[in-house]
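ARCHIVE CARD
CATEGORY: sequence design from structure
SOURCE FIELD: tokenized fold
FIELD CONTENT:
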């Protein structure tokens, strides 16, 4: 539809004669007739006057665009559909289950050690890693694996120190590497393993502390 056809359609929809439209805009009837036959184009001020008279926007008259629908008021807006409820997984469930499982396994190891070894201390020593790691999982809500790592490292270090005399600081002792016997090589591997595990635990612990301090400082009002 051309501009002239739209002007004619708007005038006809209001039962407005060409003469009345021309009088309202201050032009001749012939000018209105030329607009409607696309023989000429109204000036900008006449287009504005046509829009005001027809109570439409310039885009509707010139481009033929449909008026935008009004947004419904808050009272008319239908309530949103209820979101599908999904069961929220409790992040503590896995931690608690692992902790209880380790404690149960530790108790089982203690009973078996007591039955087969006939000594309560021996069974307790065998069961202590499971019992302590299980307790760590229940107590430490954040980073229970890190706590278990420290427990296992401490237990292994104490055991190797009493059983073989190996200590982590041996890695910086030149006297350790002077012997060429088989036991010396094994002790070197054990000492290096303890030292590397210690460094890994220290690095991880330092990173966790750094993240917590940084998060605390970034909080508003901290």
């Amino acid at each position: 539809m051309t501009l002239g056809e739209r002007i004619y359609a708007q005038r006809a929809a209001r039962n407005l004669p060409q003469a009345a439209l021309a009088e309202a805009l201050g032009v001749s009837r012939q000018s209105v007739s030329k607009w409607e036959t696309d023989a000429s184009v109204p000036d900008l001020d006449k287009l504005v006057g046509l829009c005001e008279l027809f109570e439409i926007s310039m885009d509707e008259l010139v481009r033929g665009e449909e008026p935008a629908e009004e947004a419904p008021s808050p009272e008319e807006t239908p309530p949103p559909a209820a979101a599908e409820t999904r069961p929220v997984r409790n992040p503590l469930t896995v931690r608690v289950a692992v902790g209880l499982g380790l404690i149960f396994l530790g108790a089982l190891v203690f009973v078996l050690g007591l039955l087969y070894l006939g000594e309560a201390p021996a069974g307790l020593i065998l069961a202590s890693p499971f019992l302590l790691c299980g307790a760590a999982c229940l107590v430490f809500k954040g980073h229970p694996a890190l706590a278990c790592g420290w427990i296992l490292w401490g237990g292994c270090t104490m055991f190797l120190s009493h059983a073989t005399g190996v200590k982590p600081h041996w890695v910086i002792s030149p006297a350790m590497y002077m012997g060429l016997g088989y036991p010396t090589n094994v002790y070197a591997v054990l000492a290096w393993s303890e030292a590397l595990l210690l460094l890994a635990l220290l690095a991880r612990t330092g990173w966790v502390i750094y993240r917590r301090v940084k998060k605390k400082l970034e909080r508003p009002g901290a």
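CARD ANNOTATION: Residues 94-136 form one domain. The radius of gyration is 44 Å.
SHELF: design records, drawer C
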